[in-house]
Amino acid sequence: MNTPSRSNTLAILISGRGSNLQSIIDAIAAGRLDASIAVVISNRADAPGLGYAVRAGIETLVLDHQAYRSREDYDRALVAELQVRRVNLVCLAGFMRLLSPVFVDAFPNRILNIHPSLLPKYPGLHPQQQALDDGATVSGATVHVVNKELDAGPIVLQREVPVIPGDTSDTLATRILAVEHQLYPDAIAKVLLRPLGPAPKRRTHVP
Ligand code: GRF
């Protein structure tokens, strides 16, 4: 595998299980994704996904949002940690936090999220249940750029997953998750190859 150039430096932000994080680690190890992960940050100390990073020898950092007075203060701390590591692309992988403009403006077009539905359908919480309640025959997964609106940024890649009669939220989530694990590394590779906009100016000072 080529040595990743510095413009391929990722940070992965998680809150829990971390299976998408593991799929990104695996894609890099397999040479399917030319990138390196500078740091995995969790807002929860007990996120099981942190173990995947440790096992892969990746730096981990726990930034507990409860230790900050406001969403903006927390996001400023996150941005500072990312900038100091010269991260180019921030990948949210089950990071259960809404991002303030402080964060989004620090990494314009350089934050990705994965969501288990075919956006713009079923944004927000419980998208698999939303699909079932809607009587959908197809759902899927989407990787999109994060902007200031929830789950509404430009779509990078999407893949469909059929809804099967008898599906529960859990069975549908499991099948979508298997697709997510292919989709996220592919979407990251796509964005690294063809960035979605000009790179953010480096700041020495976080506003
Ligand atoms: C995934 O379903 C992802 O689409 C959503 O949160 C879940 C995270 O799962 N945003 P994991 O922590 O990557 O296993």
Describe the fold and architecture.
The structure is a single chain. The protein is of the alpha/beta class and 207 residues long. The protein has two domains: 1-108, Rossmann fold (3-Layer(aba) Sandwich); 115-180, no CATH class. 34% of the residues lie in helices and 20% in strands. The chain has six helices and seven strands, in the order E-H-E-H-E-H-E-H-E-H-E-E-H. The chain has helices spanning 19-29, 49-55, 71-84, 101-106, 127-133, 169-193; strands at 9-14, 36-42, 60-62, 89-92, 111-115, 138-145, 155-162. It has a seven-stranded mixed β-sheet with strand order 3-2-1-4-5-6-7. Helix 1 (19-29) crosses helix 6. The protein is globular and about 50 Å long. The model is unreliable at 203-207 (pLDDT under 50). It binds 5-O-phosphono-beta-D-ribofuranosylamine (GRF). 5-O-phosphono-beta-D-ribofuranosylamine binds next to helix 1, strand 5 and helix 6.
